Amino acid sequence: MPNPTQNSTVTTTRFPEFTASGSPQEIGHAIGEQFRDTITEMSDVLLERFNRSAANPISAQEAESVATAAVPYAEQYLPDAVEELRATAQAARVPFERIMLINARSMLSAPEGCTSVMVGASASETKTGFAGQNWDNDPAMDPFSAVITRRTTGKPAFMNWCQAGVIAYMGFSDAGFGVCMNALNGPSRRSGVGWYFLVRSIYEARSLDEIVDRIGPARRAMTANAAMITPDGPADLEITLDSVKVLRAGEGESLVHTNHCVHQSLSSYNEEHADAIYGQSFERKSRAEELLTQITGSANNSKVSVDDVKSILSDRQGYPTSINRYPNDDPATGWQRSVVSLVVEPDAGRMHVSRGNPGDNPYEQYDLN
Questions:
Q1: Exposure string (b/e) for 185-199, b if CB count within 10 Å is 16 or more?
Q2: What confidence score (pLDDT) does residue 4 get?
Q3: Exposed, middle or buried: residue 33 (CB in 10 Å: 0-12, 13-18, 19+)?
Q4: What is the pLDDT of residues 292-335, one digit of tens each?
């Protein structure tokens, strides 16, 4: 396994790519068969990697209990997704509980961070909206990652950068929705609908109202953030146990989100759950907004390009705890880094992903054909 303090430059800059089509069972079987070795190895090391950054390490028995408790909620919320995962487990020849643990890992509450930028069509140089983020997390997840496209019969097709076996992650759908994700400070519980199942429901929707209607009634297990580009422009969903708060872009048609609550009604969480805010969240948000203003300010009056967002995500002001994050002396998360950086363009049907810190590594383009 790679050492988490390895140099950020990687030898192979493109992730494995795979497309699965058909029923949930057919898609799950294809993914499990294709990534059998990857899923097996990841399920073996996942808990050890989690406990590296957890404030309160948990045992394998506790982790399995969380994963098992999540099953009935997931089955009630998205039965097709659970059917897909059961087929993945069968084809990968691992117990179903291991696949559910991969999908319940965010419910175990280890810290992770991200910086997201959303740009609407009217502010975009290309006249179409897009969104991007850095994924600040465990670099040992790299060899377990791939770009996977699912084409489920009767539902929108979607492409994700993800770890094999995860039901949904960052990416975009052919219904025009791009999804970036940010850990968010707030209450959580170890029972309910897990975060990745909520994200999967976004990809299966065809309107923002449908997304809110799907997520709203669910018994959610945690607080988290979906930074999205939609057919109607940027939209950010701060999702807590009890509410779904929607942030929309103002006149400038752009939004930035990091790892603290922005919606006015949730501002108290920034004090009540201050210990759950991933490092330098306020500083990263301010810096990204500053860089956007330099592009679009009255003196320039310029539109924002995909390359501009790549440049923002590559920014090293405040190194090593910059937007483009590197190993540092933080006792909880200092071994983490910007494992990938990505920009999604749903209208164009493409995604750009750097394998490793952006700037040190190129963005590779992946197309939803």
A1: bbebebebbbbbbbb
A2: 36
A3: middle
A4: 999 987 666 689 999 999 999 999 999 999 999 999 998 888 99
How does pLDDT run across 92-111, given as a tens digit for each residue?
A: 999 999 999 999 888 876 66
Which residue has 């939004």 as its token pair? 255
Dist CA 134 CA 313 (whole Å): 6
> Vertex 301, ends 358 and 262: CA angle to 5°?
60
Token pair of 145, please? 């990652």
What does the alpha-carbon distance between residue 197 and residue 201 come to, in Å, rounded to a whole number? 6
Query: Which of 336, 332, 338 lies closest to 354 in space, CA to CA?
Result: 338
- For 173, the 3-state DSSP assignment is strand
Distance, CA of 41 to chain centre: 21
Percent of the chain with pLDDT over 70: 94
**Which pLDDT belongs to residue 7?**
44
Tokens of 127: 């006249």
Residue 320: is the preceding peptide bond cis (ω within 30°)? yes
What pLDDT does 66 receive? 87
- Give the three-state DSSP class for 364: strand
pLDDT attached to residue 1:
34
Of the candidates 106, 82, 51, 56, which has an alpha carbon nearest to the alpha carbon of residue 220?
106
* 130-137, strands of its sheet edge to edge: 254-257, 113-119, 130-137, 337-345, 350-355, 363-367
Cβ(89)–Cβ(166) below 8 Å? no
Q: Reply yes or no on whether the pLDDT at 183 is more than 60.
A: yes
Using CA atoms of 253, 254, 259, 262 in order, give the dihedral in degrees to the nearest 10.
Answer: -30
Ranges of each domain in the chain: 17-367
Q: What is the pTM of this model?
A: 0.93
Sign of the dihedral through C-alpha 316, 144, 352, 360: positive
Reply yes or no on domain 17-367 having CATH 3.80.10.10: no
Retrieve residue 352's tokens: 């750009």
Q: What distance lies between CA 107 and its chain's CA centroid?
A: 14
The pLDDT score that the predictor gives to residue 5 is 37
Burial call 66-88: b when 16+ CB within 10 Å, e when fewer = bbebbbebbeebbebbbbbbbbb
In the predicted model, is pLDDT for residue 3 greater than 50? no
Q: What distance in Å separates the CA atoms of residue 349 and residue 7, rounded to the nearest whole number?
A: 32
